[in-house]
Amino acid sequence: MDFLPDYLQEGMKILFIGYNPGLRSAELGHHYAGRGNSFFPLLYKSGLIAEPLTYQEDAELLPRYGFGLTNLAARPTAGIKDLNAGDYREGRQRLQAVLEEYRPLIAAYVGVGVYRHFSGRDKSGLGMQREQVVSGTADFVLPSTSGLNPLPLREKEEWFQKLRSL
User: Fold this and answer.
1) Residue 1 binned pLDDT confidence (cut-offs 50, 70, 90)
2) How many whole angstroms separate alpha carbon 2 and alpha carbon 114?
3) CA gap 95, 10 in Å, rounded
4) Average pLDDT over residues 159-166
5) What is the distance between the alpha carbons of residues 83 and 118, in angstroms, rounded to a whole number?
6) Does residue 145 sit in helix, strand or coil?
7) CA-closest candidate to residue 80, choices 88, 92, 69
8) Lower CB count within 10 Å: N or C terminus of the chain?
9) How far apart, in whole angstroms, are the C-alpha atoms of residue 55 and residue 117?
10) Alpha-carbon span 8 to 96, nearest angstrom
């Protein structure tokens, strides 16, 4: 099983950061490919992208919109419960280096837990965070787009719209 490629470049507007690749995403070689994952529909419905894209077009986000993709942990798993302390430790170090090297305008964490595991801030919630983890990069926490997240799609869309308004 291959790991997913990161889509990174200097001058990114937004770097979307997920937990880790699901097994289906790793198998297909595309970010947010899980059945029921609403990431790409939410990008379009919120107005962040001008045309609907699918997970198969994940590499298009960077050249078309300046949106990068990466994950906190690189190892694919069936679910986040299968990640271990080593995955998080390695992921925090790698993500810190990525943010410091590429300096996106906004780091958008796709899930409160992604941000909490990375930042160590257990009481953080959705939306813009008061303190930046990496100076010069705003931190914005989105709800998880996984189909397992019970938050209604309309509420998820509202958070994506708030990100767009930045």
Assistant:
1) very low
2) 21
3) 15
4) 97
5) 14
6) coil
7) 88
8) N
9) 25
10) 14
Q: Domain spanning 14-165: which superfamily?
A: Uracil-DNA glycosylase-like domain (3.40.470.10)
Specify whether the CB–CB gap between 146 and 155 falls below 8 A.
Answer: no
How many whole angstroms from its chain centre is CA 63?
17
Q: Quote helix, strand, coil % in the chain, to nearest 5.
A: 40, 15, 45
Span 129-152, pLDDT tens digits = 999 999 999 999 999 999 889 999
Residue 2: its pLDDT value, please? Answer: 53
- Indicate if the pLDDT at residue 48 is higher than 80: yes
23-45 per-residue burial string, b: 16 or more CB within 10 A, e: under 16: ebbbebbbbbbbeebbbbbbbbb
Q: Both tokens of residue 2?
A: 């291959």
Taking the C-alpha atoms of residue 166 and residue 162, their distance in angstroms, rounded to an integer, is 7
Domain positions in the chain: 14-165
Two structure tokens written together for 27: 């198998």
